[in-house]
Amino acid sequence: MTTVNRLRPRRSCLAVPGSNPRFLEKAQGLPADQVFLDLEDACAPLVKESARHHIVDALNNGDWGGKTRVVRVNDWTTHWTYRDVITVVEGAGQNLDCIMLPKVQDAEQVVALDLLLTQIEKTVGLEVGKIGIEAQIENAKGLVNVDAIAAASPRLETIIFGPADFMASINMKSLVVGEQPPGYGADAYHYILMRILMAARANDLQAIDGPYLQIRNQEGYREVARRSAALGFDGKWVLHPDQVAAANEIYSPAQEDYDHAELILDAYDWCTSEAGGAKGSAMLGDEMIDEASRKMALVIAGKGRAAGM
Ligand code: GLV
Ligand code: MG
């Protein structure tokens, strides 16, 4: 089988308020690819301190069943960030995959987190580089600097679009997060999503779409998710258990596309092998396949394999 660079699956990224032990418990049983335990906007200032400890406890003693485990800390313009990182990584670094940094505005903010993580890893005896970084783009400055942000650290795994803060940051005339603002006849998010996707892909990172707040509107969620999935985004946030299945489905390839991608990979492996004549292209039914077809097939096969298809 041709090998696929298996990035962590992130079709569904479940937001869990770090201040609520009941939600921290419940999240463990949901079939989301990723959980992120939140110290930022889901935690009121007065409970941020206790939330750090709830999160350490949940990471160390919970059963997360192979999910990617992420903690979202507060952004660097607050006074909470360093203590969030130190408490969580010193307390539960062994049971943590990534730190999510919100409202990233420039590359230096990612570098600062990278340096802090390195010191903590050395101090507590974790492998240096173990903890990855997820960067949220949530304002105009972050978007303008997204290329440098995406290249700022080898720890980076994903760039995430934060639509709620972003809409506020650019004064977009809408209060419904992720929905099109009335009065504009085209897709108001196209430029932002593409800008994030290009920066991510140019640096071999994943691109993740953010939340959809109308949690009772399943069709609305699906419609917004289908748009970013069509562009190539790898997953989307889920704020409610009802959104998990939709994200897992929409960000997985269709079974038929996955089967076809595996056929292309097998056919290409065969035609380029000595036994197959060491050719650069071949016919698969009526379709000519070559190295470019292999690359396209690898993307679909990679996502399908990660989804256990
Ligand atoms: C997420 O953090 C958002 O602001 O949309
Ligand atoms: Mg935000």
From TrEMBL:
<dbReference type="InterPro" id="IPR015813">
    <property type="entry name" value="Pyrv/PenolPyrv_kinase-like_dom"/>
</dbReference>
<feature type="domain" description="HpcH/HpaI aldolase/citrate lyase">
    <location>
        <begin position="11"/>
        <end position="241"/>
    </location>
</feature>
<keyword id="KW-0479">Metal-binding</keyword>
<protein>
    <submittedName>
        <fullName>Aldolase/citrate lyase family protein</fullName>
    </submittedName>
</protein>
<dbReference type="GO" id="GO:0016829">
    <property type="term" value="F:lyase activity"/>
</dbReference>
<keyword id="KW-0456">Lyase</keyword>
<dbReference type="InterPro" id="IPR005000">
    <property type="entry name" value="Aldolase/citrate-lyase_domain"/>
</dbReference>
<keyword id="KW-0460">Magnesium</keyword>
<dbReference type="InterPro" id="IPR011206">
    <property type="entry name" value="Citrate_lyase_beta/mcl1/mcl2"/>
</dbReference>
<dbReference type="InterPro" id="IPR040442">
    <property type="entry name" value="Pyrv_kinase-like_dom_sf"/>
</dbReference>
<dbReference type="Pfam" id="PF03328">
    <property type="entry name" value="HpcH_HpaI"/>
</dbReference>
